[in-house]
Design a protein that fits this description.
- It contains three helices and eight strands, in the order E-H-E-E-H-E-E-E-E-H-E.
- The protein has about 140 residues and is mainly beta.
- The N terminus is likely disordered.
């Protein structure tokens, strides 16, 4: 079974076909679109619009209004939800936190994008606490 990691809503939906639509067309039921969401922790992103600056650590709490907050309250720890047979609230519109490679200094905490979990994904992998990635060392030339 293939999986699509979609950290931002724009990676799966947009003006054209969804990113996974060609994979779904090719693999049919053997393909699954999987969202990876986290409750609280940290992540790396550049500050503002500076594409040359090194990524900086950003912290985020669980919050109260996002789907991540609801998932953190539903069960403790890390888990997976199969959205093909799930609770009605996961078939209703939700707000998903939205971060990219560049984020505004403070307001990134309030950025959300709409989604309907059971419509947009086949499953959700939920990680209670995220930690920053570590950039690989530069290759020597």
């Amino acid at each position: 079974m293939g999986a699509q990691r979609a950290p931002r809503e724009g990676h799966i939906r947009g003006p054209g076909p969804a990113l996974g639509s060609r994979l779904r067309e090719r693999y049919g039921d053997r393909y699954s679109a999987l969202a990876l969401l986290f409750g609280k922790g940290s992540f790396l992103a550049r500050r503002g619009d500076d594409l040359q600056a090194p990524p900086a650590r950003h912290r985020i709490g669980t919050g109260t209004r996002s789907i991540e907050a609801h998932l953190a309250d539903a069960l403790k720890g890390d888990y997976y939800i199969d959205l093909r047979c799930t609770a009605p609230w996961l078939r209703a519109p939700q707000a998903q936190r939205s971060f990219g490679a560049n984020v505004p200094r403070f307001s990134y905490r309030f950025h959300t994008t709409p989604l309907v979990p059971a419509k947009d994904y086949d499953g959700i992998a939920f990680v209670a606490r995220s930690t920053c990635s570590h950039p690989l060392p530069q290759a020597e030339e």
